[in-house]
Specification:
The longest helix is centred in the middle third of the chain and has 20 residues, at 177-196. 42% of the residues lie in helices and 17% in strands. It has 311 residues and is α/β, with parallel strands linked by helices.
Length: 311
């Protein structure tokens, strides 16, 4: 079911490259459904998938992959659809249901019946959707930085503070968005990282690796699709029904982590999430962390995750 590529799908200068040199993190591609998905992996044991968001890539999980591997897990971080040349959505969809189906296809392609899911930002959205589409394939779920439930959509309509924080989503609907993202060596991406995680500076080698991912042909145009499909319902009935399934109450044990200083998504938006989780739910606000909490407070975040997965 798997196919190894000779061309590294992630930048050599990325955190993944560093860990790979030490033999801890490996790189290959996996045929999952109709996509050949680049993955990073470490360890062996129960499967844990780590799902990245925007503006990010799978390599930022390298530290957590190492920690999970040391604790006896098979930790895998795939690239999300659209994040590599040739990885454009085959059906044109960047909706939650499509990325959730990608997660389920990868679990199957890796030869496992079930996996734990850890999702950050849009990766959290994919994890929520996968758990709803087939709860039998998800043992435990960890969401980070993007809450689940109606409160976020309500905030986009009625909460001026969150509307300010989410300005980039509205800007990405415009025709000039791609040129603006790419301008001056992705200066807008640097700005988002600074604003969303105040006080945190992404190391230069990791910043360069992220920009290399975004600079690959077609990637920025595809990743904008996640936002350009965010506020409009699907045109066809089949996709509308699938989206409805992907957005129901979640029936697997779940942990939610949110940086207390997140300047992208207000930590207050996670209040009340327990109403849509039916099999146990824990919520933790991580002090001293903004939006990219798994990088800002890696030990604390990993401790919370492992405590939950091992319980």
């Amino acid at each position: 079911m798997t196919q190894v590529t000779q061309r590294p799908p992630f930048a050599e200068g990325s955190p993944a490259g560093t860990f790979q040199a030490a033999g801890l993190v490996r790189r290959r591609t996996v045929q999952a459904g109709v996509l050949e998905v680049p993955i990073l992996e470490a360890g062996s044991g129960p499967l844990v998938l780590c799902l990245h968001g925007f503006p990010d890539h799978a390599a930022s999980w390298a530290g957590l992959l190492d920690r999970l591997a040391q604790e006896g897990y098979w930790a895998v971080a795939p690239a999300q659809r659209g994040y590599w040349p040739g990885g454009a959505a085959p059906d044109g969809s960047y909706r939650a249901s499509a990325t959730g189906q990608d997660v389920l296809a990868l679990i199957e392609a890796l030869g496992r019946r079930q996996a734990d899911l850890i999702g950050h930002d849009l990766g959290a959205r994919a994890a929520y959707a996968a758990a709803n589409l087939d709860a039998t394939r998800v043992r435990k779920l960890v969401g980070m930085a993007v809450p689940y439930g109606p409160q976020l959509r309500n905030a986009w309509v009625a909460d001026g503070d969150q509307q300010r924080r989410s300005w980039y989503m509205f800007f990405f609907q415009t025709a000039m968005a791609q040129a603006a993202v790419e301008l001056n060596d992705f200066a807008l991406i640097d700005r988002l990282w600074r604003e969303w995680s105040p006080g945190y500076e992404l190391p230069e080698t990791e910043r360069a690796a992220l920009k290399e991912t975004l600079r690959a042909p077609g990637v920025v145009a595809e990743t904008l699709g996640y936002y350009r499909q965010l506020f409009t319902p699907p045109a066809d009935e089949e996709t509308r029904a699938l989206e409805a399934r992907a957005g129901g109450a979640i029936s697997v044990p779940s942990l939610y982590l949110h940086g207390a200083d997140d300047n992208c998504m207000s930590v207050g938006l996670s209040a009340g999430m327990e109403a849509v989780f039916k099999s146990g739910f824990q919520r933790v606000a991580v002090p001293g962390a903004g939006h990219f909490l798994h990088l800002e407070q890696p030990t604390t975040v990993a401790d919370h995750i492992l405590g939950f997965l091992n319980s």
